[in-house]
Design a protein that fits this description.
By secondary structure, this protein is an alpha+beta fold. The chain folds into three domains: about 90 residues, Ribosomal Protein S5, domain 2; about 40 residues, no CATH class; about 140 residues, no CATH class. The chain is built from ten helices and six strands. The chain has a four-stranded mixed sheet with strand order 1-2-4-3, covered by helices on one side. It has a two-stranded antiparallel sheet with strand order 5-6. Helix 1 packs parallel to helix 5 and helix 5 runs antiparallel to helix 10. The longest helix is centred in the middle third of the chain and has 48 residues. The chain starts with 6 loop residues before the first strand and ends with a helix.
């Protein structure tokens, strides 16, 4: 299956620590470039997140956002800091020796003292496992989106290939007659320009020139490149770089066909080929 480098996925994963929000965006790039934006509670897992994404994706510029939204229960689950309470109690006991007639300690005031009450601490081990599971689901959603987009790109490329095959099929039977016509025309002009008895030399020059303008080799290579593009689209996933190389080769053959052209028909076909190849290349730039 062909994968596009363009895709988007988002995931909400409920955990004991809150709701884990994951967002993944991918666009085309020459290689895999990751940009991670993690909140404070997830930042310690950056290395693991990077490795997990690299194991799943091949190419593309990928933005990953990870956030933990604490639910009301988790946010309101305050805990007593016993060590701070113990320090306050010991300090109050020592102070009471100097002020024996002071009022008893107001517990509500004690609870409002800094550090006495704290939010529930996030379980790092549990969060790491939840993060791995949630990210794996988000990555699979991203891959599914890239597959759907890749199928569209594949169909566009195959459509252009079909048009190119039609042009190659059209130009092949034209070439022998065009070469013969051009050879006869050139022979006639040479005969008029040079009153020479060396007909064999002229004939040899015409044969050599006909060989130089023969495009059978270029058309055969175009057929081979078309077949290879179809094979890659059918079997390979990491196909972008190879397909891009084949577009360069096909464009070279189309250029040669144009440079050897001896008629307006073959010139027009060469131009149409280059337009179609460029259209394919634009789509292939988005294939992983």
């Amino acid at each position: 299956m062909i994968l596009s480098m363009t895709g988007y996925a988002s995931q909400e994963y409920n955990t004991a620590n809150g709701v884990l929000l994951i967002e993944l965006r991918s666009v085309n790039h020459r290689y895999l470039e990751l940009q991670l934006k993690l909140d404070d509670s997830c930042r310690s897992f950056e290395s693991a997140v990077r490795e997990q994404i690299q194991a799943k994706l091949g190419r593309g510029k990928v933005d990953c956002r990870l956030n933990i939204v604490r639910n009301n229960a988790a946010a309101s689950a305050l805990q007593l800091n016993h060590s701070v309470l113990q320090q306050i109690a010991e300090s109050a006991k020592e102070a009471a020796q100097y002020f024996p007639h002071t009022q008893p300690v107001n517990m509500l005031e004690v609870l409002q003292m800094p550090g006495v009450m704290g939010a529930q601490v996030i379980d790092a081990e549990t969060l790491e496992q939840d993060l791995k599971t949630g990210l794996n689901q988000a990555l699979q959603s991203l891959v599914d989106a890239k597959l759907r987009e890749g199928e569209k790109l594949k169909n566009i490329v195959l459509s252009r290939l079909q048009e190119i095959e039609g042009l190659v099929t059209t130009v092949k039977p034209m070439m022998p007659a065009l070469i013969k016509q051009y050879q006869e025309k050139l022979t006639s002009k040479l005969a008029e320009a040079h009153a020479s008895n060396d007909d064999d030399r002229i004939r040899q020059e015409m044969v050599l020139f006909a060989q130089r303008i023969d495009v059978d080799e270029e058309l055969s290579r175009l057929d081979a490149h078309i077949a290879e593009v179809k094979r890659i689209l059918k079997h390979d996933t990491a196909a972008g770089k190879r397909l891009d190389f084949l577009m360069q080769e096909m464009n070279r053959e189309a250029n040669t066909l144009g440079s050897k052209s001896v008629s307006i028909e073959t010139t027009q076909i060469s131009m149409q080929l280059k337009v179609l190849i460029e259209q394919m290349r634009e789509q292939i730039q988005n294939i992983e």
